[in-house]
Protein backbone atom coordinates (compact mmCIF):
# COMPACT_ATOMS: atom_id res chain seq x y z
CA UNK A 1 0.00 0.00 0.00
CA UNK A 2 2.92 2.35 0.66
CA UNK A 3 3.72 2.54 -3.07
CA UNK A 4 0.31 4.19 -3.66
CA UNK A 5 1.62 7.39 -2.12
CA UNK A 6 4.13 7.68 -4.96
CA UNK A 7 1.30 8.51 -7.35
CA UNK A 8 -0.31 11.89 -7.80
CA UNK A 9 -3.85 12.60 -6.60
CA UNK A 10 -4.25 15.55 -8.99
CA UNK A 11 -7.39 15.43 -11.15
CA UNK A 12 -7.02 14.33 -14.74
CA UNK A 13 -5.74 17.01 -17.07
CA UNK A 14 -6.94 17.69 -20.60
CA UNK A 15 -3.93 15.74 -21.86
CA UNK A 16 -5.10 12.70 -19.86
CA UNK A 17 -8.52 12.87 -21.50
CA UNK A 18 -7.35 12.85 -25.10
CA UNK A 19 -8.18 9.88 -27.33
CA UNK A 20 -11.19 7.58 -27.34
CA UNK A 21 -10.42 6.12 -23.91
CA UNK A 22 -9.71 9.42 -22.21
CA UNK A 23 -12.92 10.91 -23.60
CA UNK A 24 -14.93 8.47 -21.46
CA UNK A 25 -13.85 10.42 -18.38
CA UNK A 26 -14.28 13.98 -19.69
CA UNK A 27 -17.54 14.58 -17.87
CA UNK A 28 -16.42 12.74 -14.75
CA UNK A 29 -13.51 15.11 -14.16
CA UNK A 30 -15.90 18.04 -13.61
CA UNK A 31 -18.24 16.29 -11.17
CA UNK A 32 -17.91 17.49 -7.58
CA UNK A 33 -19.93 14.76 -5.85
CA UNK A 34 -18.21 11.48 -4.99
CA UNK A 35 -19.13 7.86 -4.40
CA UNK A 36 -20.21 7.23 -0.80
CA UNK A 37 -17.02 5.18 -0.29
CA UNK A 38 -13.65 5.24 -2.04
CA UNK A 39 -12.26 2.18 -3.77
CA UNK A 40 -9.76 1.80 -0.94
CA UNK A 41 -12.66 1.58 1.53
CA UNK A 42 -14.67 -0.84 -0.60
CA UNK A 43 -13.09 -4.15 0.56
CA UNK A 44 -14.03 -3.40 4.16
CA UNK A 45 -17.44 -1.87 3.43
CA UNK A 46 -18.55 -4.56 0.95
CA UNK A 47 -16.31 -7.52 1.76
CA UNK A 48 -18.55 -10.19 0.21
CA UNK A 49 -18.91 -8.35 -3.09
CA UNK A 50 -15.17 -7.60 -3.21
CA UNK A 51 -14.28 -11.26 -2.61
CA UNK A 52 -16.71 -12.46 -5.28
CA UNK A 53 -15.30 -9.92 -7.74
CA UNK A 54 -11.77 -10.96 -6.86
CA UNK A 55 -12.22 -14.72 -7.28
CA UNK A 56 -14.88 -14.73 -10.00
CA UNK A 57 -14.41 -11.40 -11.82
CA UNK A 58 -16.25 -12.18 -15.05
CA UNK A 59 -19.43 -13.33 -13.29
CA UNK A 60 -19.26 -10.31 -10.99
CA UNK A 61 -18.88 -7.92 -13.93
CA UNK A 62 -21.89 -9.43 -15.70
CA UNK A 63 -23.99 -9.23 -12.54
CA UNK A 64 -22.94 -5.66 -11.77
CA UNK A 65 -23.63 -4.42 -15.32
CA UNK A 66 -27.14 -5.86 -15.17
CA UNK A 67 -27.64 -4.38 -11.71
CA UNK A 68 -26.42 -0.93 -12.81
CA UNK A 69 -28.53 -0.87 -15.97
CA UNK A 70 -31.66 -1.86 -14.08
CA UNK A 71 -30.94 0.58 -11.30
CA UNK A 72 -30.87 3.44 -13.78
CA UNK A 73 -33.92 2.12 -15.66
CA UNK A 74 -35.80 -0.43 -13.52
CA UNK A 75 -37.16 -3.42 -15.38
CA UNK A 76 -35.13 -2.75 -18.51
CA UNK A 77 -33.25 -6.06 -18.30
CA UNK A 78 -30.51 -6.09 -20.91
CA UNK A 79 -32.33 -3.85 -23.39
CA UNK A 80 -29.98 -0.91 -22.79
CA UNK A 81 -26.81 -2.95 -22.98
CA UNK A 82 -24.09 -2.37 -25.52
CA UNK A 83 -20.40 -3.18 -25.51
CA UNK A 84 -18.71 -1.12 -22.78
CA UNK A 85 -21.87 1.02 -22.91
CA UNK A 86 -20.20 2.95 -25.72
CA UNK A 87 -17.78 4.68 -23.35
CA UNK A 88 -14.62 3.34 -24.94
CA UNK A 89 -15.32 3.61 -28.65
CA UNK A 90 -14.53 0.83 -31.06
CA UNK A 91 -12.02 -0.37 -33.60
CA UNK A 92 -12.58 -0.50 -37.35
CA UNK A 93 -15.74 -2.53 -37.95
CA UNK A 94 -16.10 -3.40 -34.25
CA UNK A 95 -18.31 -0.62 -32.93
CA UNK A 96 -20.43 -0.63 -29.74
CA UNK A 97 -24.10 -1.10 -30.52
CA UNK A 98 -23.33 -2.85 -33.80
CA UNK A 99 -21.98 -6.14 -32.46
CA UNK A 100 -25.26 -8.00 -32.09
CA UNK A 101 -25.83 -6.82 -28.51
CA UNK A 102 -29.57 -6.43 -29.07
CA UNK A 103 -29.91 -10.07 -30.15
CA UNK A 104 -27.50 -11.70 -27.70
CA UNK A 105 -26.76 -9.23 -24.89
CA UNK A 106 -25.78 -11.86 -22.34
CA UNK A 107 -23.36 -13.58 -24.70
CA UNK A 108 -21.84 -10.22 -25.69
CA UNK A 109 -21.46 -9.24 -22.05
CA UNK A 110 -19.73 -12.55 -21.34
CA UNK A 111 -17.24 -11.85 -24.11
CA UNK A 112 -16.74 -8.27 -22.94
CA UNK A 113 -15.97 -9.34 -19.37
CA UNK A 114 -13.52 -12.01 -20.55
CA UNK A 115 -11.75 -10.08 -23.31
CA UNK A 116 -11.88 -6.51 -21.94
CA UNK A 117 -12.23 -6.77 -18.15
CA UNK A 118 -10.74 -3.35 -17.44
CA UNK A 119 -13.05 -1.56 -19.84
CA UNK A 120 -16.01 -3.66 -18.68
CA UNK A 121 -15.70 -2.77 -15.00
CA UNK A 122 -14.94 0.88 -15.79
CA UNK A 123 -18.02 1.13 -18.03
CA UNK A 124 -20.26 -0.14 -15.23
CA UNK A 125 -18.74 2.39 -12.85
CA UNK A 126 -19.28 5.17 -15.39
CA UNK A 127 -22.98 4.35 -15.66
CA UNK A 128 -23.46 5.25 -12.00
CA UNK A 129 -20.99 8.15 -12.16
CA UNK A 130 -22.89 9.84 -14.98
CA UNK A 131 -26.29 9.04 -13.51
CA UNK A 132 -25.51 10.82 -10.23
CA UNK A 133 -22.69 13.16 -11.25
CA UNK A 134 -20.00 11.39 -9.25
CA UNK A 135 -16.39 12.42 -9.77
CA UNK A 136 -13.15 10.63 -8.97
CA UNK A 137 -11.95 10.65 -5.37
CA UNK A 138 -8.24 11.27 -4.68
CA UNK A 139 -7.82 7.70 -3.45
CA UNK A 140 -9.49 6.39 -6.61
CA UNK A 141 -7.19 8.44 -8.85
CA UNK A 142 -4.10 7.21 -7.01
CA UNK A 143 -5.22 3.57 -7.08
CA UNK A 144 -6.07 3.63 -10.80
CA UNK A 145 -2.76 5.29 -11.68
CA UNK A 146 -0.86 2.70 -9.67
CA UNK A 147 -2.64 -0.17 -11.43
CA UNK A 148 -2.18 1.37 -14.88
CA UNK A 149 1.50 2.01 -14.21
CA UNK A 150 2.04 -1.62 -13.22
CA UNK A 151 0.29 -2.81 -16.38
CA UNK A 152 2.57 -0.63 -18.53
CA UNK A 153 5.61 -1.85 -16.60
CA UNK A 154 4.58 -5.49 -17.09
CA UNK A 155 4.09 -4.92 -20.82
CA UNK A 156 7.48 -3.19 -21.13
CA UNK A 157 9.20 -5.94 -19.17
CA UNK A 158 7.70 -8.63 -21.39
CA UNK A 159 8.86 -6.82 -24.52
CA UNK A 160 12.36 -6.30 -23.14
CA UNK A 161 12.52 -9.96 -22.22
CA UNK A 162 12.18 -10.82 -25.91
CA UNK A 163 15.11 -8.58 -26.86
CA UNK A 164 17.44 -8.97 -23.86
CA UNK A 165 18.63 -12.23 -22.38
CA UNK A 166 20.21 -12.58 -18.95
CA UNK A 167 20.17 -15.04 -16.07
CA UNK A 168 16.87 -14.95 -14.21
CA UNK A 169 15.12 -12.67 -16.69
CA UNK A 170 12.12 -14.96 -17.04
CA UNK A 171 11.66 -15.06 -13.28
CA UNK A 172 11.83 -11.26 -12.99
CA UNK A 173 9.23 -10.83 -15.74
CA UNK A 174 6.98 -13.44 -14.15
CA UNK A 175 7.13 -11.63 -10.82
CA UNK A 176 6.34 -8.24 -12.42
CA UNK A 177 3.43 -9.74 -14.35
CA UNK A 178 2.12 -11.46 -11.24
CA UNK A 179 2.23 -8.22 -9.23
CA UNK A 180 0.48 -6.33 -12.04
CA UNK A 181 -2.21 -9.01 -12.43
CA UNK A 182 -2.89 -9.29 -8.69
CA UNK A 183 -3.11 -5.50 -8.40
CA UNK A 184 -5.52 -5.33 -11.34
CA UNK A 185 -7.73 -8.04 -9.84
CA UNK A 186 -7.83 -6.23 -6.50
CA UNK A 187 -8.58 -2.85 -8.11
CA UNK A 188 -11.39 -4.15 -10.33
CA UNK A 189 -12.84 -5.86 -7.26
CA UNK A 190 -12.71 -2.55 -5.40
CA UNK A 191 -14.46 -0.79 -8.27
CA UNK A 192 -17.25 -3.38 -8.43
CA UNK A 193 -17.72 -3.27 -4.65
CA UNK A 194 -17.82 0.53 -4.76
CA UNK A 195 -20.56 0.47 -7.41
CA UNK A 196 -22.48 -2.21 -5.51
CA UNK A 197 -22.38 -0.13 -2.32
CA UNK A 198 -23.60 3.00 -4.12
CA UNK A 199 -26.50 1.20 -5.81
CA UNK A 200 -27.60 -0.41 -2.54
CA UNK A 201 -27.39 2.95 -0.79
CA UNK A 202 -29.42 4.71 -3.47
CA UNK A 203 -32.02 1.93 -3.57
CA UNK A 204 -32.52 2.16 0.20
CA UNK A 205 -32.87 5.94 0.03
CA UNK A 206 -35.35 5.87 -2.88
CA UNK A 207 -38.45 4.68 -0.92
CA UNK A 208 -37.80 7.34 1.75
CA UNK A 209 -37.58 10.07 -0.90
CA UNK A 210 -40.79 8.85 -2.56
CA UNK A 211 -42.60 8.84 0.81
CA UNK A 212 -41.47 12.40 1.51
CA UNK A 213 -42.78 13.52 -1.90
CA UNK A 214 -46.17 11.93 -1.23
CA UNK A 215 -46.38 13.56 2.21
CA UNK A 216 -45.72 16.98 0.73
Descriptive report:
This protein has 216 residues and is mainly α. It has helices spanning 19-22, 42-45, 47-55, 57-72, 105-115, 117-132, 138-163, 169-215; strands at residues 33-34, 134-135. Helix content is 62%, strand content 2%. The protein has a two-stranded parallel ribbon. Helix 3 (47-55) packs across helix 8, helix 4 runs parallel beside helix 6 (117-132) and helix 6 packs parallel to helix 8 (169-215). Residues 209-216 have low confidence and may be disordered.
Shape: globular
Radius of gyration: 19 Å
Question: Helical element count?
Answer: 8
Spatial strand arrangement across the major sheet: 1-2
Regarding quaternary structure, what we see is: single chain
Strand content: under 5%
| Distance between the amino and carboxyl termini | 49 Å
Order of SSEs? HEHHHHHEHH
Count of β-strands: 2
Arithmetic mean pLDDT: 84
Could you list the spans in which at least 5 consecutive residues all have pLDDT below 50? 209-216
Amino acid sequence: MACLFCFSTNPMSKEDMKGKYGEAFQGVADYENKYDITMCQAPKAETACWCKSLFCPCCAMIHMRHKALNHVEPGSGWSNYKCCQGYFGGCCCLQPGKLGESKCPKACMCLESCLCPGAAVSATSNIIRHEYGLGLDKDDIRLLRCSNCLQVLACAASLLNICIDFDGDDMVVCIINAVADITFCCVQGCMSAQVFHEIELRDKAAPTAEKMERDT
